[in-house]
């Protein structure tokens, strides 16, 4: 398989990011990376064509570090995908649920199974990540220890699922962005398009309020707005926004022009198809 047939993700084999790669790009070879920075660098160097990066979880909010890495990544957003967080309790072959006394996983995943663990008297043990915890359980000889991870992790590390779908919130999902060195934008005629962009408001009174006004008056739906400090400054705030629509749509074009009056800079990171999962969630 050539380097252009690969997709990079952060984590060990069996991580939910790995699952996102398999679901969205089954024909590409998933490449595990130790950090988000390494996944981005793998694409920038040409060792992989795409990167699959988690940006937010419907229960726990945004993924730390990603928003700070996106502006300087040198990559473009070309798509999004969603992975429902189905959490499985797994142990070594022959283990039984009634013998499990502790479960290892990433701290975020442990928090999503609090009710199940409490009902069964299972003590949570913090691991580096989900798939790594599954691997450690597979390699260890400690009796009574299980892992909380994806079904893919159980498959990869030869573990047996002792209890299925043990997460407390059945509607929990993680959103991933697909990143590429190539700028690939959705066509203006595409039926459902998202535009993601960065902007920094000028340090004047009511700048953000005025900057947002153009989207309201032009009927542009903003589905996400995140803020964080820019360059270590307490006076310069940078925003990451997702809106529905293409930059060539007249309403979006007018809103972006109005935004320019109240910002020191703005940059589009991606124009890409909205994932069908959004529509399914609206109907629930």
From TrEMBL:
Its EC number is 4.2.1.51. It holds the Pfam family PDT. Transmembrane segments: none annotated. It catalyses: prephenate + H(+) = 3-phenylpyruvate + CO2 + H2O. The keyword tRNA-binding does not apply. Pathway: Amino-acid biosynthesis; L-phenylalanine biosynthesis; phenylpyruvate from prephenate: step 1/1. GO terms for cellular component: cytoplasm. One of its GO terms (molecular function) is prephenate dehydratase activity. It is an enzyme of class 4 (lyase). InterPro entries: ACT-like_dom_sf, ACT_dom, Chor_mutase/pphenate_deHydtase, Preph_deHydtase, Preph_deHydtase_CS. Keywords: Amino-acid biosynthesis, Aromatic amino acid biosynthesis, Lyase, Phenylalanine biosynthesis. NCBIfam families: PRK11899.1 (NF008866). PANTHER family: PREPHENATE DEHYDRATASE P PROTEIN, PREPHENATE DEHYDRATASE-RELATED. This is prephenate dehydratase.
């Amino acid at each position: 398989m050539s380097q252009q047939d690969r997709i990079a993700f952060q984590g060990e084999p069996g991580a939910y990011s790995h699952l996102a790669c398999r679901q969205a790009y089954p024909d590409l070879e998933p490449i595990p990376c130790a950090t988000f920075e390494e996944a981005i660098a793998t694409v920038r160097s040409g060792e992989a064509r795409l990167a699959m990066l988690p940006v937010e979880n419907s229960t726990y909010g945004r993924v730390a570090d990603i928003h700070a890495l996106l502006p300087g990544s040198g990559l473009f957003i070309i798509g999004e995908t969603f992975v429902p967080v189905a959490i499985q309790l797994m142990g070594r072959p022959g283990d039984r649920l009634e013998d499990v006394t502790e479960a290892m996983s990433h701290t975020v995943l442990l928090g999503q199974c609090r009710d199940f663990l409490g009902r069964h008297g299972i003590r949570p043990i913090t691991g580096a990540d989900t798939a790594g915890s599954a691997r450690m359980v597979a390699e260890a000889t400690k009796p009574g220890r299980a892992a909380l991870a994806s079904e893919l992790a159980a498959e990869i590390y030869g573990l047996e699922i002792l209890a299925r779908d043990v997460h407390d919130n059945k509607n929990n999902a993680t959103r991933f962005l697909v990143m590429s060195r190539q700028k690939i934008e959705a066509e203006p005629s595409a039926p459902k398009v998202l535009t993601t962009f960065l902007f920094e408001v000028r340090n004047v009174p009511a700048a953000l309020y005025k900057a947002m006004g153009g989207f309201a008056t032009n009927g542009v739906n903003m589905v996400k707005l995140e803020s964080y400090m820019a360059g270590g400054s307490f006076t310069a705030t940078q925003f990451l926004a997702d809106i529905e629509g293409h930059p060539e749509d007249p309403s979006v074009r007018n809103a972006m022009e109005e935004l320019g009056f109240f910002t020191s800079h703005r940059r589009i990171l991606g124009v890409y198809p909205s994932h069908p999962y959004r529509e399914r969630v609206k109907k629930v």
